[in-house]
Amino acid sequence: MIVYPLPAQSREDLMDILRQIGADLRSIAYFEPKREILSLYIPKADFRAAAYMKQELLARGGDAVVHRDVIACAAEESDVLLLGTPGHIRSLEKKLAALPCWGLPDIKAALGRTLAGMAKTSWTFEFSGGRSLPLGKNTAVMGILNLTADSFYEGSRVSGEEELLKRALAMVEGGTAVLDVGAESTRPGSESLPEEEELARLIPAIRLLRKEFPGAVISADTWKGAVARQAMDAGADIINDISGLAFDPDLAGAVAGSGAALVLSHIQGTPRDMQQNPTYEDTVRDI
Questions:
Q1: Residue 187 has what pLDDT?
Q2: Single pTM value for the model
Q3: Is residue 79 domain-shared with residue 160, that is, in the same domain?
């Protein structure tokens, strides 16, 4: 069970959400005044849980969008858009503990995690050597250094040690928070690089950057477990995996317990075929 923010930035956005849930579109008149307060989306709730949450929020001054057939008990399940102030939503989360049925305990747990996450405004990743990466309200910039001649963005490509150090120095002096080093192009249509070739490009570059910039946070862009191990040994603080752990089952174990951070991205298919009709019905749920 997941619960995630789904703000409606406009009346049209709200209408799309009503259609997605299957609500009576005429109800937009009631929901429109409430769309700019906190809105949290719950997919595939039991219809009884959906009706219960709607009534509880209405009693508190909030509301919830549910499928039009929920009230007649003609729908087995319904997506739910909770609408309320943070106080309304926190009060609902506490009340969900009263009924251990209809999947409400799972919804309560997911809602609690979401509220806790939304309340956290900053955190810091601590790495070896006294390096750290604070994240929060201030934007942290990642500088991209691609050791390839065919990366998607030409401006990210570097060739040779001299250019690598020159570009890295400019990034560090300019306030870049992370140096991200990649040795395999993952542009649309690209083929996978043999592990030995990726290692030959990547590891010397990370060693050089770590030697010249001991205080810099370095990220290694790779999806291969064996490459990640050597990259961390060479001085990488972060492993940046475009596959979301989907390409190499060894990667998670390689990073776990290492002290490095793991960045996960989403992809449909592989770089070779990811642009062949990518489609999503619900982006957050599908990912």
A1: 60
A2: 0.78
A3: no
